[in-house]
Amino acid sequence: MADKNILLVGSRKGLMVYQRAKGSQEWKHTDTHFLGIPVSLAAIDAHTGYWWAMLDHGHWGCKLHRSADGKVWEELEAPKYPEGEEVKDGVPATTRYLWAFSPGAKSEPGTIYIGTEPGGLFKSTNNGDSFELVRALWDHPSRKDQWFGGGRDYPGIHSILVNPENPDHLYVSISCAGTFETTDGGKSWEPRNKGLKADFLPDPNSEIGQDPHLVEWCMANRQVMWQQNHCGIYRSADGGKNWADISEANGPANFGFAIAASETNPQRAWVVPGVSDMLRVAIDGALCVCRTDDGGATWKAFRKGLPQESAYDIVYRHALDVAGNTLAFGTTTGNLYLSADDGESWEVLSHNLPMIHSVAFC
After folding, report:
1. What share of the chain is helix, strand, coil (3-state, %, to 5)?
2. Nearest-CA neighbor of 7 among 343, 332, 320, 351?
3. What is the Cα–Cα distance from 341 to 40, expressed in whole angstroms?
4. Torsion-angle region of residue 267: left (phi > 0), alpha (psi -120 to 50) or beta?
5. How far apart are CA 17 and CA 224, in angstroms?
6. What is the SS3 assignment for 213?
7. Kind and range of the H or E element at 330?
8. Residue 2: pLDDT above 80?
9. Which long-range contacts (CB under 8 A, 24 or more apart) does 30-33 make?
10. Three-state secondary structure string covering 69-126
11. What are the start-end ranges of the H helices in the chain?
């Protein structure tokens, strides 16, 4: 089975694996898979121990691979839209990007979910041998007219949160549409976007059309949810029913893509901010990580070990992760950083990687 001594780094040119020996604090690069091929996301299913890699092959499109041991990989048929499905009237639905992955609940080993562009959620109950489109979400009355692409051509599901204790309860988040919740195993879905603001919409308070960049929750208290949104940072204390803007008014913690939530402390989360949606680079050429310890009332910016001049990094939505008091993030300029003290100081694991799409402790 997997443990938290493995760090998977999905990049523009392959999947890099870092590991540390038990009891050690030193991380070493131990393997590279799919060299030269973009890996949009990689993960290990803690329920089964299987490794998963989602590829965005420039010539052959989306590819899905799994491995029982992290060494030998087998290609599976990627989630596929049924014949005749349309994104919009007259626009056929085809799988353009594999953007999110989650195992199912603990009671259902071998159940996995994959989120895609153009906005479909796919479920497998046989460890990826086959997938079915979750119809009720795809057929949601808001989809064709109110969902749209945010930075990509079509809507995309980038966040999937499955309640490990309840297989019927999960959330998905979509750019651009917002967050939706089901409590009946996907038979019905309710939007969970009250309190968010989308300044790019005619009605900024519209419940549909919001642009979460990533949504996470505190595993110790899953009522507490966090999102890095296109228009700021938000927190919910009631399972997504209401959101509060917790952006830093006069500081860097505002625009960004990635957010990481403490597994045990519902008051703590981290972001890696950028200038704005128009200028997607580090603020003032200086890279920092911001942490809140009081539910977003205040933020602290940590810079030790990070470049403070001529930095052009931005961190994609899946490229920040936390395990205990250890964090890692990767940037668009191929820098990979790690902190062993809750983000207060950082060391470099590599300055020479390709553009990093995702990082995950496993």
Report:
1. 5, 40, 55
2. 320
3. 28
4. alpha
5. 31
6. strand
7. strand 326-330
8. no
9. 31/70, 31/71, 33/73
10. CCCCEEEECCCCCCCCCEEECCEECCCCEEEEEEECCCCCCCCEEEEEECCCEEEECC
11. 135-138, 143-146
DSSP assignment string, 331-354:
-TTS-EEEESSTTSB-EEEES---
pLDDT digits (tens, 9 = 90+) for 58-116: 889 999 999 999 999 999 999 999 999 999 999 999 999 999 999 999 999 999 999 99
259, 269 in Cβ contact below 8 A?
yes
Q: In the chain, how many H helices and how many E strands?
A: 2, 30
Q: What is the DSSP letter of 129?
A: S
40 CB-side CA count, 13 A: 21
pLDDT tens, residue by residue, 139-178? 999 999 999 998 899 999 999 999 999 999 999 999 999 9
CA distance 15 to 53: 8
Task: Output the DSSP codes for 298-321.
Answer: S-EEE-BTS--SS------TBSEE
Whether residue 206 contacts residue 194, with contact meaning beta carbons closer than 8 Å, is answered with no
How far apart, in whole angstroms, are the C-alpha atoms of residue 102 and residue 160?
6
Q: Are 171 and 191 in contact (CB under 8 A)?
A: no
CA distance 34 to 41: 12
CA count, 13 A, side-chain hemisphere, 357: 23
Name residue 62's beta-bridge partners: 56
Is the separation of the CB atoms in 42 and 48 below 8 Å? no
